[in-house]
Structures are given as C-alpha cells and as structure tokens.
Amino acid sequence: MSFLEFALIGFVIGVITTAPVGPVNIMAIQHAAQQGFRQGLYVGLGAVVADAIYAAAAIFGVSAVTRFVEGQFDLIKTAGAILLIVFGLKIMNTHPHLEREDGSRIKGLWREATAAFFMVLTNPGVVLAYVAIIGGLGKWRPQPGDHSGALAMVLGVALGAASWWALLSAIVTRFSEKMDDHWLDRANRIAGYILIAFGLVIGADLAFDLFG
Fold first, then answer.
1. 102 pLDDT higher than 50
2. Half-sphere exposure in the Cβ direction for 163 (13 Å, CA)
3. What is the extent of the structural domain holding 74?
4. Residue 96, pLDDT above cutoff 80
5. Cα separation of 208 and 32, whole Å?
6. pTM of the prediction?
7. Tens digits of residue pLDDT in 26-60
C-alpha cells in the first residue's frame, strides 16, 4: 500500500475514535461556545497529541502497548477518574461570559490544551480502542519494518482527529451568537455533571474490579 493510502486509513481512524461524545468533546464545545473557534480548537489539539502518541504506540507495537496498559490499568483509571471529577467541579463553578479572547490569552489556551491532553492520556479506553482497531486491520495495517507506512498512518490519525475538532469548534462558534450568558451558565453545570459522572463511573468500575 502507498503512503497516501495508509494516511487515508489513519484519517478515518482518527475521526471515528474522536467523534464519539466524551469528556474532551464536552470541554471543546463549552470553550468554543464561550470564547470562540480558537479556544475550542486548542482543547481538541491537546487531545490530538495524546491520540497521536497512543496511535503510534499501537501501530508500532500492539502487543507491547497492550501489556503496558494492562500492567498499569488501575493506576491509569484512578488518575483519569480524579482528573474528570476535578475538571467537572471546576467547570460547574465557572460563570462564563461571551467575550472573545485576544492574544493575551495564549497561556490560558495552553492550559486548556494540556488539560485535554491528560484527559485522553489517562483514559485506558483510548489506547485499547486504537489497539483493537489497528490490530484488526490485518493486511491494511503497516507490516513490521514498514516505518514509512506506520508514520503515514500516525499522521493520518492526527489529521483526522484535528479535522474533527476544527469542524466541531466551527459549528459551535457559528451558532454561539444565539447563546447568552444564562445559556452558557446552564451548559457549564450540565457539562460539569457529565464530567463528574464519567469520573464516578470509572471510579465505581475500578472499585468493583478491586473489591467485587
């Protein structure tokens, strides 16, 4: 297969693993509605970095990644649950205003991107999803030693994920004019509840595994 074909397969994988609604999607929607396209996109790009890391690990060594995740599964789940609950509480207690941000907010943008990065990095379901999808590609997966094909697929995953975040941020920003501060305040509470719920579900699942 060619470089472009591997990249296209990676692009599709990047979209289908990013599009399902999850904690980072909620963060991106909330920030795009509040502060515009760039803020929502920055949240997504933080997640893209973690996606690319896990995709590369899965493509270059499915079995090695699986063993690592299984060995650190409880620790990763604990960190992920705590992180989701903390950010959920933070969002619930934030009272947003529809004000566009200027270049002085670069530090804030990096902070949100970093938060999204760690949300994805501490979600064992993400790496297992990549391992399952890429491992199931069979002949459509780069063969051992095909570094060019593997690199193409990783780049495709990153581009697919980034494209999703750009589209999502653009759509939310397009309709943000119909949103007021009251709408955003209510959306923040809902987003916070959802993030906390994700964290509690992960924590409950971990407790069941340990003590069930």
1. no
2. 15
3. 3-211
4. no
5. 36
6. 0.67
7. 778 878 877 788 888 888 888 899 888 888 887 87
**In this structure, which amino acid lies at residue 207?**
A
Domain count, the chain: 1
3-state SS string over the chain? CCHHHHHHHHHHHHHHHHCCCCHHHHHHHHHHHHHCHHHHHHHHHHHHHHHHHHHHHHHHCHHHHHHHHHHCHHHHHHHHHHHHHHHHHHHHCCCCCCCCCCHHHHHHHHHHHHHHHHHHHCCHHHHHHHHHHHHCCHHHCCCCCCHHHHHHHHHHHHHHHHHHHHHHHHHHHHCHHHCCHHHHHHHHHHHHHHHHHHHHHHHHHHHHHHHC
Q: Answer yes or no: are the C-beta atoms of 191 and 40 closer than 8 Å.
A: no
| Tokens representing residue 137 in the block | 């590609």
Whether the per-residue pLDDT at 122 is higher than 60: the answer is yes
> Which residues touch 40 (CB under 8 Å, ≥6 apart)?
28, 29, 31, 32, 33, 165, 168, 169, 172, 173
